[in-house]
Automatic annotation (TrEMBL):
<dbReference type="Pfam" id="PF20613">
    <property type="entry name" value="HipA_2"/>
</dbReference>
<dbReference type="InterPro" id="IPR046748">
    <property type="entry name" value="HipA_2"/>
</dbReference>
<protein>
    <recommendedName>
        <fullName>HipA-like kinase domain-containing protein</fullName>
    </recommendedName>
</protein>
<dbReference type="InterPro" id="IPR011009">
    <property type="entry name" value="Kinase-like_dom_sf"/>
</dbReference>
<feature type="domain" description="HipA-like kinase">
    <location>
        <begin position="11"/>
        <end position="240"/>
    </location>
</feature>
Length: 254
């Protein structure tokens, strides 16, 4: 289970983010980036963050540690910004938090070369979860202490918006032509050989067990949160074996 903390102070909104994440302090004295359960994109965005973040971490990619953050809407009372106040008011209960990487820089492909091997592993992972949010325009990669860290996996696994079509979508190609790491000769074949065998049913069960029940219960078409967890695991398991053959738009790939 993800560590649970409670927000004690709202510090500031992070204005660059489309969903307006906030910076908060918690009762363990940690500083976290908080993604609101009441944000426009809804709780599925948070589920996607957990599934992808915890999967990527287990595949050896760097992702800030994730926690759940309990929020008392009363924290919004003194907040001058109306949009933030509204978000705080509508996000009582369980929200997503991640370690704030203090001093991290946005990834700049011109200033920071990436090895073909690492580029391949990140690109293969993005293809697996069908991440449409790692383009050169908006890389969602941070450079922290000389290394690359992955953030923002809210716009992945488009199939979770249409469960009946989920398994069919596992066969769809991934267009990598806009991917932030496409210029670094990503070695996707090596990544697939190394990572695909690690994406097992057991690993996916471990990953999906991290999703808080609160974000799964009442999902239309499912009886229990564990049924939804299995529905996340199935397309990923099927896709892992074949996705490297379905990557388009980069040299060396079909
Ligand atoms: N863990 C972190 N440590 C440091 N800075 C972070 C962290 N997470 C996010 N940020 C900063 O906040 C910005 C917004 O975060 P993120 O991309 O996750 O939000 P979003 O609302 O989903 O964004 P988008 O605009 O891509 O939809 C990032 O671009 C980055 O500058
Ligand atoms: Mg972002």
């Amino acid at each position: 289970m993800l560590k649970e903390v409670n927000a004690t102070r709202f510090i500031t909104p992070l204005r660059e983010g489309g969903s307006l994440p906030g910076l908060v302090e918690a009762d363990d004295f940690g500083t976290y980036v908080l993604k609101f359960t009441g944000a426009g994109q809804g709780r599925k965005t948070l589920v996607a963050e957990v599934v992808c973040g915890e999967l990527a971490r287990r595949l050896g990619l760097r992702v800030p540690r994730l926690v759940t953050i309990g929020l008392d809407p009363v924290l919004g009372v003194g907040e001058p910004d109306e949009q933030v106040q509204e978000l705080l008011r509508s996000s009582g209960g369980t929200n997503l938090g991640m370690d704030f990487l203090s001093g991290a820089l946005g990834f700049d492909p011109l200033a920071f070369p990436v090895e073909a091997e690492e580029a391949g592993r990140i690109l293969w992972f993005d293809a697996l979860v069908n991440n449409v949010d790692r383009s050169w325009r908006n890389p969602n990669l941070l450079r922290w202490r000389g290394e690359l860290w992955l953030i923002d996996h809210g716009a992945t696994m488009i199939w979770h918006h249409n469960w009946p079509g989920a398994e069919a979508s596992a066969a769809r190609p991934y267009d990598a032509s806009d991917h932030a790491l496409a210029p670094f000769a990503p070695d996707v074949a090596a990544a697939a050989a190394e990572l695909a065998p690690q994406v097992t049913e057991d690993l996916l069960a471990e990953v999906t067990a991290e999703i808080p029940d609160a974000w799964l219960s009442g999902e239309p078409g499912f009886d229990t949160p564990d049924d939804v967890r299995r529905a996340y695991a199935r397309p990923l398991l099927a896709r892992a074996a074949v996705v490297h053959e379905r990557i388009t738009g980069i040299e060396g790939a079909k």
